[in-house]
Every structure is written in structure tokens, then in C-alpha cells.
Amino acid sequence: MVKCYHEVKLNSNSIQVWEFIEDWSNWVEIVPGYQSHQIVSNEESIWKIHGEFGSLKKDTHIHVRILEIKAPSSILFKVDALKEQCIGEGSFHVKSFNQNDTIVSVNMKLTIKGWKGTMLYPVVKQLLPKILEDFMEKISTKIKTPNKQQRSMRVNIPI
């Protein structure tokens, strides 16, 4: 299992940051390797992701399921690579640092089973921290310079 954590401090209030994070349509397209997605339900979607490592290139479909939303502070989710033996879970956390600053963090745990897991573990262990850092920096940039054409697709899940 590969575990990874990354956080960024944003010069934005926590309400503005939460409104961005809770609506996955604001950030799904900046997920590294993003190609497309299909909405299954309010809690589930399937993302097509393209990955490259050296001469290795692969497209994979990832089933993303929201497990829990605790507004305005956290989102828990599960990922499962379809046709692969890769499963994982993660979370976003939004925490007010002070009136104008917010800390956003993301946690990921990935497990790749079988012979591929043994082979890919060192690669995933090396790449996942860089992928999360890149992703969080893109989120930071997008929150600082919001797109006026952002669509609203908020998902409210009863808890």
C-alpha cells in the first residue's frame, strides 16, 4: 500500500475553498492524466485517466465513489481501477487557518494487487507524491483565479 499526503495553504477564506472543493466539476479536469468522465450517480462517476512513465503508456478507467461529505470540512472517497487490481481511498480536508487563510489537504492510499502490484509499487510510491503535489498546486491556482464559466454540480449526500 502506498500512502501519500499533501497540503497547501491558500489565501482564501474557508467558505470559498469549500465551495470549490465540494463541487468536483470544478476540479475533475485538472486531475493529472484526466481524459474524460461519466457520471453514474450523485455519488459515483467513472474517470478515464491516461498515465505515462518512461515508455509505458496506459489509459485506465477509475470508478470514484463518494463515501461521505461533512460540510464544510471533509470529503471521503474510494477509487477502484476497473479491469485492474488497484483500489484505494482518500479524502479532502478544508481547515480554516485564520479569517483569510485556509489549509486544504488531500490523503490517498493505493493498493495494487497481484504480480503487477509487486512490479508497480516502486513506481507508484515515487509518482504519487508528485501527482498529488501537482494536483494541489493546480487547485490552488484555480481557486485564486476562478473561471467565470464554472458550472455548479454540487452533490448533497444525506448523512
From TrEMBL:
InterPro entries: CO_DH_gsu, START-like_dom_sf. It holds the Pfam family COXG. It comes from the Bacteria. CDD domains: SRPBCC. This is SRPBCC family protein.
